[in-house]
């Protein structure tokens, strides 16, 4: 199958052992690692899902806290017990929902922000109404 599209693909990390796929063992607990990876690639945010790698060569237990500027800064293990079906597929995007306090919204509702060259900006409701599906 496909390994990459314009904004998504199987996630690889360049660590001490070179380029390897990222295993979903710890990474799949939340989207923090996907956000770190996507920010490093120039996107605003990211999500992850299950993928299948073409070979069994992984970094395991990749555990980002969100303060990293690159995926390689996230604690991880070089020794691994991952199968090709445990690869991480990441999709990067330019929109996010935040709570009124500015934290990432966890319940699929919140204030819409878009990322641009000026950073994160709130989307104005001037042209939005109850009929919009945006």
Automatic annotation (TrEMBL):
Superkingdom of the organism of origin: Eukaryota
Pfam families assigned to the protein according to its UniProt record, in alphabetical order: SRCR
Any one Gene Ontology cellular component term annotated for this protein: membrane
InterPro entries (UniProt xref): SRCR, SRCR-like_dom_sf
Residues that span the membrane, as ranges: none
Residues in SRCR domain copies: 1-93, 95-134
Record keywords, A-Z: Disulfide bond
SUPFAM superfamilies: SRCR-like
Protein name: SRCR domain-containing protein
Organism: Octactis speculum
